[in-house]
């Protein structure tokens, strides 16, 4: 009699589990349509990067603007930690929503990922990476200004350096120096009409991401070949903009515009010289693995 009772309880529990899993063979959380409720599975959390990053600020805005993201939060830590969580999720085919961008090696390493559509355009469309100079650089160090103004390359160049560094474990800066050696024709265009100098000092402000380690590393090498003495300093995005505006630094290659660094740009735009894009076709947004059966930020569910 006792045994039978227990069996009844067990069957009851089983039935509840089977109902919960209905229409969802993985047994994961399901919404009222019987589809996997990824939002609940990821605990309404976007896996993000460093707190000071433009993409982190933009993601806070997305959480404010999208009904589907009400009650969500973005977990801010570091790019390295986000990549570790992404790897773990993909290995187990678990859902994850990350803050993603190009240029980066994440899409070379994990090709089966997609940007979620962003109908409200919070993350913008195509981003450019702009070069900014301090006011007065053109007059005081014209050869530096000219070279920085002539520097431009593309997403594939930058990603090549980033991916090789990731694969080989070599520092991005070291791979950048090699890239300069291997791409003489490209470099020749940037230094066209630039006279050699004798130890003119240049302070390049940068940010702590491999994309900017690559561009700053390439420019530093090219400038040093022309006789400049270049220091690259990695700063928080906000400080990077301020350092150009106050004249503490001469220039940066790392302004992601018009969206990613919008607030920082607008706060400083009267005190900086915008030399325009050194790279076009960059992008930021929310990224998920292909095996997640959603296409848009609006396919997520509020808490
Ligand atoms: N990023 C890469 C940075 C700039 C470089 C997109 C992560 C950001 O500020 O969001």
Describe the structure.
The protein is α/β, with parallel strands linked by helices and 303 residues long. The protein is built from 13 helices and nine strands. Strands 3, 4, 5, 6, 7, 8 and 9 form a seven-stranded mixed beta sheet that branches. The protein has a two-stranded parallel sheet with strand order 1-2. Helix 8 (155-168) packs across helix 9, helix 8 crosses helix 11 and helix 9 (172-182) packs across helix 11. Bound molecules: 1,1-dimethyl-prolinium (PBE). Residues 49, 53-55, 101, 207, 209, 211, 237, 256, 260, 284 line the site of 1,1-dimethyl-prolinium. 1,1-dimethyl-prolinium (PBE) binds at residues 49, 53-55, 101, 207, 209, 211, 237, 256, 260, 284.
